[in-house]
Amino acid sequence: MCCRYVLLQAHTRSLLDQLGVLLSADALPPSRYNLPPGAGIPAIRTRPPARSAASADPKCHPLGDTLPEPARELTALRWGLVPSWARDDASPAVNARAESLAEKPAFRDAFRTRRCLIPASGFYEWKASGRAREPWFFRLRDERPFAFAGLWETWRAPDGHTLESCALVTTAPNSLMEPVHHRMPVILAGPAAWDAWLDPRLASPEALASLLRPFPAEAMTAIAVNPRVNNIRNDDPACLSPAEEQQLSMGF
Questions:
Q1: How far apart (Å, rounded) are the C-alpha atoms in residues 122 and 143?
Q2: Residue 110 within a domain
Q3: pLDDT value for 182
Q4: Are 176 and 220 in contact (CB under 8 A)?
Q5: Which residues does residue 93 pair with via DSSP β-bridges, in sequence order?
Q6: Scanning 102, 114, 204, 206, which has its CA 20 to 30 A from the CA of 24?
Q7: What is the pLDDT of residue 51?
Q8: Segments forming the whole domain that contains residue 197
């Protein structure tokens, strides 16, 4: 599973620019170096355009005209998906397995109609070493930003308040990830993959299957990092400090 990640502010800006999401500089989320489940995290999703009374009138759209393209927005979602039908929010799903998205009740509706992109600069995973757990940081080899494939849901509490939440989709590991963990997040890199994941016209598992594969190992890199990342209260650049002696245990 993926349970911590990094998002630099410059990478958020880059992704928003490429996806056509307009946001003022002072509204950009700050850089985060140790984002954990339960936090409010930035996500990009398709937002249907508001329909005025005029736009709802078929006479305003003669044959051959098209309605406006759905807009994209940056929003904050709580990391840990709560299905709309859940009795409470006590057991949120941090990750969703790609292999069962279309069948599992907690995810199948969101998989069809509520997909989102979760911008990232890299992510952490922990390698068991005896009784110790060594943190490793994974990122793209060229250090460009990417997005996790995500799902989002809206849940209404008994007292009437609403919660918008999300889960990261995971898949089988590539050869770089496998020595550390048996799963890895689905990584979407580049406009073509982002557009496809956000496209509301794509709803079948077959149409999305090519996006849910392990990311190529040769396009990624991994480095052992400072154990201070183990504590979620530590959220600063020092979390990315190399732990050189740990790299020898994996042969990197």
A1: 9
A2: yes
A3: 94
A4: yes
A5: 81
A6: 114
A7: 45
A8: 5-46+69-247
User: What is the domain-level CATH number for residue 145?
Assistant: 3.90.1680.10
pTM: 0.88
Residue 231 neighbours by CB distance under 10 Å: 10
Look at the chain and report how many structural domains it folds into: 1
- The H or E element that residue 177 is part of is none
Both ends of the chain: CA-CA distance in Å? 22
Is residue 208 one of the residues assigned to a domain? yes
Residue-wise DSSP of 171-199:
E---TTTTTT-S-EEPEE-SHHHHHHHH-
Residue 136 CA to residue 240 CA, distance in Å, equals: 9
pLDDT digits (tens, 9 = 90+) for 79-108: 999 999 999 999 999 999 999 999 999 999
Cβ atoms < 10 Å from Cβ of 93: 21
Q: Of 139, 229, 124, 137, which is closest to residue 187 (Cα–Cα)? A: 139
Residue with tokens 């799903």: 93
- Contact by Cβ (8 Å): 101, 183: no
Question: What is the CB neighbour count within 10 angstroms for residue 104?
Answer: 14
Q: Is residue 73 domain-resident?
A: yes
Domain annotation covers residue 119: yes
Contact call for residues 215 and 189 (beta carbons, < 8 A): yes
The greatest distance separating any two alpha carbons of the chain, rounded to the nearest whole angstrom, comes to: 70
Over residues 115-146, the pLDDT tens digits come to 999 999 999 999 988 888 899 999 999 999 99
CB atoms within 10 A of CB 101: 22
Is 198 strand, coil or helix? helix
Q: Is the pLDDT of residue 251 over 50?
A: no
